[in-house]
Description:
By secondary structure, this protein is α/β, with parallel strands linked by helices. It is built from 17 helices and 22 strands. The protein has helices spanning about 125-135, 135-155, 165-175, 205-220, 245-255, 270-280, 280-290, 315-325, 330-335, 345-350, 365-380, 390-395, 400-405, 435-440, 470-485, 490-495, 500, and strands at about 1-10, 10-20, 30, 40-50, 55-60, 60-65, 70-75, 85-95, 95-100, 155-165, 180-185, 190-195, 200, 230-235, 260-265, 295-300, 325-330, 355, 420-425, 450-455, 455-460, 465. Strands 4, 5, 6, 7, 8, 19, 20, 21 and 22 form a nine-stranded mixed sheet that branches. Strand 16 (about 295-300), helix 8 (about 315-325) and strand 17 (about 325-330) form a beta-alpha-beta unit. The radius of gyration is 23 Å and the shape is globular. The site of zinc ion has 6 residues, from loops. Zinc ion binds near residues 162 and 299.
Amino acid sequence: MHVSFTIYKNGRTYVLGRTSRFGSEHKRVNMTQRRGNMRTKVSSKYLIAEVEGEPVVIADGELVFEGDEIIFVGKHFADHVDRNLDATDSIVSPGFISTHSHLGGSPFDRSLREDVYDYWKTGLYDILMPIRAATDEAATRAATRATILELLKGGVTSVVDLTADHALTAEYAEESGIRAFIGQYVRTWVWDTDGVNVTYKHIGEAEQSRLVDEAVQLLQRYDGRDSNIQAILAPAQIDTCSVELLEEVSRLSQKHNAPVAIHAAQSAAEFNAILKSYSATPIEFLDRVGLLNQRTLIGHGLFIPGHSWLQYPYGDDLALLSESGATVAHCPTVFERHGQALENFYAYRKRGVRMSLGLDSAPHSMQAEMRIAGAIGRVLGRSEIGVTGLDIFEAATSAGARALQRQDIGKLAVGSKADFIQFKTDTVSMAPLRDPIKNIVHHSNPSDIRAVYVGGECRIQDGTSVYADEKEIATNLQTAAEGVWEKFPNGHSGSKTLDEISPRSLRTL
Length: 509
Ligand SMILES: [Zn+2]
């Protein structure tokens, strides 16, 4: 039995209906009617959706969106539509959310940051700082544009960008349509290093105040209600912000109900610096300054008491994390590259810590990140069922939405934004198919993605951009990277060249 009808009343749309299979799968929709917006129906082989608050897979499911908003998920939509998208050979999945990215810089890691020795096993001090110093505006533009395209091609429809140049991110978020959460970095100090010792240089009170003012202006400008851009707060790193600055960020976050993304517990050097200065772990220190709560995204949360690289057994950071509702932005690739890991996904999850996934460094592939997160989590957790495909899928979708205080992304449900991925099923990497979640997490490749939609707009079709020329973007990135490599200042206070820090794999004739 199926009933469904739409009424228009007082300028608002109400879609009512029910089916026998899910009880009341056609939710009551109460939304402003956006006249002129097309109504589109997507017919799938499998639809990964949320019905009555429960994540489900709907075989032969239909998704209907009007403008940028989903008005129906279920078995059959009987009302009229303006357009049909035939995805009956596809899985339709929620778009991925990267909760920790650096759009304007991280592509320059590629071909450089791999197979590199770094004293602190992070690449932060020997590689990233010189790259940043060598990156000008043209290079940042090329990198931002390229990273956004790479993210979209892999099904990422929302990204948290931590960058020094949010204006460029906003510009290319407009061009591409990706949903961007942008923050103005605020800080008190910048790092200095000789490769072993990390020291801190004050940026000056006036500069710190200017950064805070700009962060506040950004919050006022982008509240995320009517655009694909939303401002967040971004105190750069826990060890580069003073107590007073972090407390100010906490006050602003409460006042504006704004998410906060911060690097914390990300290196042994940082853990030691915080312990030495404040007699607290980075997580305890976050709590002390009022920044450990459900609005906080912690990149990367590795270094907690008990981590095998620390000689520090005191305290229970997992309990603090779990009770606070804060979310870890877990970015396993950039750390495994330096031979280290969060210890471990299974243990964190078991203690109730909210885990999301971020694509900190190239490659910006959520499919690769999901697989690495699952593999390391299972191996270090010594459990084949401790970290499941579903745990990882949720970390890549709904967990980020919750951390960002957004009820309307990270899932395909009535009232949500139409941010979705169309995965092919007729490829050798996706067939045979019994469980869409398992196939996406454990088996899918970028080439299995047929299309990606953000806010109901197609941004990727048949594997490439519909809004810009990929070859041009890649060529610009190559030119920009060659400029960065040329200007790369010698690391270790000038004692090593780029080729000594990052030797090429083979002698190039
Ligand atoms: Zn980062």
